[in-house]
Amino acid sequence: ALRDERVAVVQSLSGTGALRIAGEFIAGAKPGALVYISDPSWGNHHQIFQRSGLETRKYRYLNEQMGLDIEGMLHDLAKAPKGSVFVLHTV
Questions:
Q1: Which long-range contacts (CB under 8 A, 24 or more apart) does 14-22 make?
Q2: Conformation bin of residue 77: beta by default, left when phi > 0, alpha when psi is -120 to 50
Q3: Is 6 left (phi over 0), alpha (psi -120 to 50) or beta?
Q4: Residue 25 three-state SS
Q5: Is the peptide bond before 31 cis (omega within 30 degrees of 0)?
Q6: pTM listed for this prediction
């Protein structure tokens, strides 16, 4: 993906404000894109993207011991439709 220039990354300050800007950018650049948000995540994250007109889904992030569920995460990444957007952050 990196060699084909199909990866984009943005870093910013402020969680809620940054996600709101990201939601508007994604909605304008890729209308209809699915946005995957980690499970667990903050309670307002789905609403932020939905208010930009985007559909959200969950991807596995932590296991029962609060460790990274790498198998679940990689499975969900592999099964997502092409062009999906994944919000990566720490909880």
A1: 15/42, 15/89, 16/44, 16/48, 19/45, 19/48, 19/49, 19/87, 20/48, 20/51, 20/52, 22/87
A2: alpha
A3: alpha
A4: helix
A5: no
A6: 0.82
Residue type, 31: P
User: Could you tell me which of 75, 76, 73, 74 has the C-alpha nearest to residue 62?
Assistant: 73
Residues listed for the chain: 91
Instruction: Calculate the dihedral angle through the C-alpha atoms of 26, 54, 35, 89, rounding to the nearest 10 degrees.
Output: 70
**How many Cβ atoms sit within 10 Å of the Cβ of residue 77?**
13
Summarize the confidence of residues 48-77 as an average pLDDT.
95
Average pLDDT, integer, range 44-57: 96
Rounded CA gap, 71 and 78, in Å? 11
